[in-house]
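hey team, just a heads up i'm posting the complex here instead of the shared drive bc the drive is being weird again. everything in one block, sequence lines first with there labels, then the predicted structure for the whole assembly after. its two chains so it's a bit long, scroll down
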Amino acid sequence: MTPRGRPEPVQVVKQRRDAVLAAMVAGLPYLRRLGVRFDRRGDELTAVLPFDEALIGNPFLPALHGGVTAAFLEVAALIELGWVLVWEDMEAGRLDPAALTPEAMPRLPKTIDFTVDYLRPGLPRDAYARARVNRSGRRYASVHVEAWQDNRSRLFAQATGHFLMPSKDG
Amino acid sequence: MDEAGAERARQFIRAIPQARALGMRILSMAAGRAEIEMPYDPSLVGDPATGVIHGGAVSTLMDTCGGAAVLSHPAGAGGTATLSLRIDYMRAATPGQPVRARAECYHVTRTVAFVRAVAHDDDAENPVAAATGTFTLEGAAS
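-- predicted structure starts here --
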């Protein structure tokens, strides 16, 4: 049996994971434009879209813009997929934390198609989304994502998207 | 566009904070068809290495354009909401160029409008994205 070293201190692990996530998010200016951030618990990510008046699409209800909902779901799916792809290298310490600039991060997959199912109007409140990678192959991936506001069990939108994986050399 | 149509189009954009925030401009909006332009902006970028805007911004343009097509349809809906939207991303939009979407509401029932749309940059022959969507029809005249 190979002797095992002591586990890394929890702060080191947390700091590395948060630095990688921050670098991924920083690489997407459009995320900042929407105001989306990510909460992390272990490997579980929750995308958060804080409400802003500029996100309204129907001022009479009022309701979130359907395009904003679609964009929110798409970035949630994309970051989740990127996170899953980077996880193994990150945990093995193969990503140099000092070099985690957005430019040095592995390229994110590209969206091939994205289908949104609008279940109820998006209220003028914060929204949350969690994505699940249903299939991740060498070239393609399929990701499902669900979004809710006040109640986790009352989704206001869900979506499925297909993504083209980044090639290994670029 | 005639003056009444142009005024209706301006009102449509003015009423939608997100469309205003993205600087969208209606080029035409009548008889179940709409064409909307969205200027390039660095804050919409999804990949800083290339400067290509994120698909999410194109989704918002497509959804807005689809809604405009529905509201301009002779069925005379007072309001509309997206039921479903599927977008196919065919190629990256060229950085620096505006994206234009053209949507057509090609069928309506009493309660549902069916829409298809395409988006392109300066190379109009070569779309960047295509979309199909279903929208609700609310407060229709008929």
